[in-house]
Amino acid sequence: MSDQSEDAATLEQTPEAPPTPESTAITLHDLETARATNNALMERLRDALCATEPTIHAGMIRGETLEEVEASFADAKALVERVRKQVAREAVVVSPGAPGRQQQVLASPIEKIRAGLSR
Q: pLDDT tens for residues 15-40?
């Protein structure tokens, strides 16, 4: 066990080598690629969310992470719902107009005279 503790102590005391320009360049390239991929995926997510709720404009959904985009979509959806309720509340009920005419029953002249005399 003492060998293991000596190895651990040696590892803790060993200074890390500074990054070389080549390893830094690879890391920066990987980071840029990951950002571009993330941005493309977030754009596709925005488009998909807008397709599920056509009343929400894509400009209403913001964010660079999944959580930010989902929260922004939830806010936009709540806003649209509030607007719908407000419009429904303010909608004026318009009467459909005068009632339609009654359908006239075709009658013979004699029947018409009898109906007129019975009134």
A: 566 666 666 666 888 889 999 999 99
* Residue at 105 is within a domain: no
Angle CA(74)–CA(78)–CA(82) in degrees, nearest 5? 170
Number of domains in the chain: 1
Inter-helix orientation angle 21-52/66-90, to 10°? 20
- The answer to whether residue 46 is domain-embedded is yes
Give Cα separations from 43 to 36, 40, 67 (angstroms): 11, 5, 14
- Is pTM beyond 0.85? Reply is no
- Structural domain including 46 reads 21-93
Query: pLDDT tens across 42-98, in order?
Result: 999 999 999 998 898 888 899 888 899 999 999 999 999 999 999 988 887 777 777
- Pairwise CA distance, residues 11 & 6, whole Å: 9
